[in-house]
């Protein structure tokens, strides 16, 4: 019987397989950041162990880093200690580090792919659940806990039980203004935040094949929000083109050998998935969340649901609690929800295509009075590219703030936070209570919806913008 | 890691589903660089409410948490497990756990027990009507037992894969176990294709 993509990559990394034991998998790439690594390095010290493969390990700073005044000492002493701890650990153990101020610094899941380190058929881990992002390249990539970080540092392997596989097939054309973000939000709303649990997801079908690498990363990034540890997309010409010429992409004969191998990384026709979901791309619309988990979403043109409409008691209760926290009433039109803050950034939507599509909508328009808009590139390289294209000027001319690279408002660990009760439209991936700051209320949206919302001051899609207040509207770049 | 065989203690009914790791331990606590001292951050937002179940005096000192489905969703932070342990919990019962949380908990010796929702419901009833009721989590027998106030007893078997159980029962450290396979790891490394990426180029 044939094998799925996930099974092929898994099998190619088995160091040891024994009856009744988890497989011991080799790890090709280990990404580190400041939050989940200190206790792991401590563990190494305590047991007098080294990092086994420094050449497969790389670190960056992202979660705690400020996005303003980055040349000044970090104001929050606890954040500062965490960054200093990473610097010391990397120096002590010899790990390659891109600290704040370095040209390769940025959100760990933006940095790996742009350096060409994330490649098809590799295993990628990081002490961060959004490691699933790297699956866009046909890599088996998943988040791990700090004990596992220590385990990989010491052994370059992980003992793991093989998950089941689920196919999510999306056929057809995405309608105008429907992006990868809308697609993944719709998938999560369909299968639920626990729907992917125990599975590796494989996104496939004609609509997925048409997506750019960056859009594929947006999709795989949020696999974890559907409960799956990993999401994958089979590598194809789009993947190879993206990688070719990047710093760490193979060259010469190695490139040819790599591509020959990468071409084998497709689910066989006779392979069987443990579960399958089918989605018709043409039926999708811009999608936003109204609740406090990423599964609580609906098309922007619809209304806040009535908790009473849920049959399942725990879902009903969750919806009631969510509406209370979010300060919303059942039946309210989603388009009527006014926001205070718009955030464009994060490892979900902080890449160049995301910034381009937001900028194309803001060009010649203004952020609405009373709305604060933060645009935070996912990495320094993304920032430099945006500046080269003049996007920063578009954002600032529209009244948005152009910031330095980092996780920023994706989570409340650095100075960029929502105040209690404040409401945001955010291109990040989690709308949990307090995620963007204590008491903050988050609506997850695409970069296009974020930009339209910033202009109009309420949740809106590009189609809601009138042409009178804008320069030429270019079609959305990122799909 | 401390070995886990059987634990008996009072239990807290946490009637909430989808308790994500941001609720278990909010992000600002993740700035600490140690493994201890997270107890005050556990469910920090909810604990501001004096009526929150963990604040109620009758549940003080409880060591088993009985939670709703999809416990531990969200981020991979192991701090969530440390916070539960620092607070004093030895075991968490739910009808469904998020994968990463479950993996993290078992690595740290916090036993996560999966029971069907009706059994969880029954445990909630027992522990709500009698907060002094004791719940036993027996890893050797793979069984949860509780006594309800009306004298009836609840016994439910749970599953846990044999390997994880063996490690927990013996308190074995994963890294030492893996390093026993040094020869296999070295052989795998020697056979890796040269086109595989490296972060440091010689
Ligand atoms: S951008 Fe957000 S989701 Fe991504 S790594 Fe940073 S905090 Fe995590």
Written description of the protein model:
The complex is a heterodimer of chains A (479) and B (202). Chain A is an alpha/beta fold. In chain A, 31% of the residues lie in helices and 16% in strands. Chain A contains 16 helices and 19 strands. In chain A, helix 6 (180-191) links the parallel strand 9 and strand 10. In chain A, helix 2 (38-46) packs across helix 5 (146-155) and helix 13 (352-362) runs parallel beside helix 16 (447-456). Chain B is 32% helix and 18% strand. Chain B is built from 8 helices and 7 strands, in the order E-H-H-E-H-E-H-E-H-E-E-E-H-H-H. Chain B has helices spanning 21-24, 44-47, 79-87, 99-108, 117-129, 162-170, 174-179, 182-191; strands at residues 6-14, 64-67, 91-94, 111-114, 134-138, 143-147, 153-157. The two termini of chain B are 38 Å apart. The chains are: A alpha/beta (479), B alpha/beta (202). The interface between A and B is large, with 83 and 57 residues. The complex binds iron/sulfur cluster (SF4). The site of iron/sulfur cluster (SF4) has 14 residues of chain A, from helix 4 and helix 12.
Mean pLDDT of chain A: 95
Strand content of chain A: 15-25%
The hetero compounds bound to this protein are: iron/sulfur cluster
Largest β sheet strand count, sense and barrel closure of chain A: 5 strands, parallel
- As laid out across the biggest beta sheet of chain B, the strand order is 4-3-2-1-5-6-7
Work out the largest interface and the residue count of each chain.
A-B, 83 and 57 residues
How many helices of chain A does DSSP assign? 16
Contiguous low-pLDDT stretches of chain A (5 residues minimum) are 471-479
Unreliable spans of chain B: none
Question: From N to C, what is the helix and strand string of chain B?
Answer: EHHEHEHEHEEEHHH
| Computed Rg of chain B | 19 Å
Amino- and carboxy-terminal Cα gap of chain B: 38 Å
> What structural class do the secondary elements of chain B suggest?
alpha/beta
């Amino acid at each position: 019987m044939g094998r799925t993509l996930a099974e092929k990559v898994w099998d190619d990394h088995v160091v040891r397989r024994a009856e009744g034991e988890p497989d011991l998998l080799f790890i090709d790439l280990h990404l580190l950041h400041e939050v989940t690594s200190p206790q792991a390095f401590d563990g190494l010290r305590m047991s007098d162990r080294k990092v086994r493969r420094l050449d497969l390990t790389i670190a960056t700073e992202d979660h705690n880093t400020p996005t303003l005044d980055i040349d000044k000492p970090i104001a929050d002493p606890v954040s500062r200690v965490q960054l200093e701890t990473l610097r010391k650990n990397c120096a002590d153990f010899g790990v390659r580090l891109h600290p704040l101020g370095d040209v390769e610094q940025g959100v760990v899941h933006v940095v790996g792919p742009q350096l060409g380190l994330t490649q098809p058929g590799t295993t990628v881990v990081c002490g961060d659940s959004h490691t699933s992002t790297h699956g866009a390249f046909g890599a088996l990539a998943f988040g791990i806990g700090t004990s596992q970080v220590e385990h990989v540092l010491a052994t370059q392997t992980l003992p793991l039980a093989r998950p089941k596989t689920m196919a999510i097939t999306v056929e057809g054309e995405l309608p105008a203004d429907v992006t990868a973000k809308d697609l993944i939000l719709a998938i999560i709303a369909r299968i639920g935040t626990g729907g992917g649990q125990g599975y590796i997801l494989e996104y496939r079908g004609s609509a997925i094949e048409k997506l750019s690498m960056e859009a594929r990363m947006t999709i795989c990034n949020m696999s974890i929000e559907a409960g799956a540890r990993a999401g994958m997309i089979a590598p194809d010409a789009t993947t190879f083109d993206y990688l070719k010429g990047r710093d760490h992409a193979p060259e010469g004969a190695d490139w040819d050998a790599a591509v020959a191998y990468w071409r084998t990384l497709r689910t066989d026709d006779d392979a069987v998935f443990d579960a399958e979901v089918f989605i018709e791309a043409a039926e999708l619309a811009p999608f936003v969340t109204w609740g406090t988990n990423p599964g609580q979403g609906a098309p922007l043109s619809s209304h806040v649901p009535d908790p009473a409409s849920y049959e399942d008691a725990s879902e009903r209760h969750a919806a009631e609690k969510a509406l209370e926290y979010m300060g919303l009433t059942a039946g309210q039109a989603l388009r009527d929800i006014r926001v205070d803050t718009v955030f464009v950034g994060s490892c979900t939507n902080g890449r160049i295509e995301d910034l381009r599509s937001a900028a194309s909508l803001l060009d010649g328009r203004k952020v609405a009075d009373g709305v604060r808009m933060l645009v935070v590139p996912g990495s320094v390289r993304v920032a430099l590219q945006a500046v080269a294209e003049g996007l920063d000027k578009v954002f600032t001319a529209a009244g948005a703030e152009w910031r330095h690279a980092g996780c920023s408002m994706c989570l409340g660990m650095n100075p960029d936070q929502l105040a209690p009760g404040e409401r945001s439209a955010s291109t990040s991936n989690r709308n949990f209570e307090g995620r963007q700051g204590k008491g903050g209320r988050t609506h997850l949206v695409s970069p296009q919806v974020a930009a339209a919302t910033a202009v109009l001051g309420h949740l809106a899609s590009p189609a809601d913008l009138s042409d009178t207040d804008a320069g030429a509207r270019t079609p959305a770049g990122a799909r | 890691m401390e070995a886990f065989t059987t634990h008996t203690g009072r239990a807290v009914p946490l009637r909430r589903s989808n308790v994500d790791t941001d609720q278990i331990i909010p992000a600002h606590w993740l700035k600490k660089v140690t493994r201890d001292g997270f107890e005050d951050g556990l469910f920090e937002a909810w604990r501001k409410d004096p009526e929150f179940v963990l604040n109620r005096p009758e549940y003080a000192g409880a060591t088993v948490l009985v939670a709703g489905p999809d416990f531990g969703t969200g981020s991979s932070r192991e701090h969530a497990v440390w916070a539960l342990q620092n607070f004093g919990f030895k075991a968490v019962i739910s009808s469904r756990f998020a994968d990463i949380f479950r993996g993290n908990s078992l690595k740290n010796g916090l036993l996560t027990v999966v029971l069907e929702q009706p059994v969880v419901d029954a445990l909630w009833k027992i522990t709500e009507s009698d907060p002094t009721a004791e719940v036993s989590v027996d890893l050797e027998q793979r069984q949860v037992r509780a006594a309800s106030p009306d004298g009836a007893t609840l016994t439910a078997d749970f599953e846990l894969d044999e390997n994880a159980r063996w490690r927990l029962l013996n308190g074995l450290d994963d890294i030492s176990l893996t390093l026993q396979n040094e020869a296999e790891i070295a052989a795998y490394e020697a056979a890796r294709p040269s086109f595989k990426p490296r972060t440091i180029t010689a």
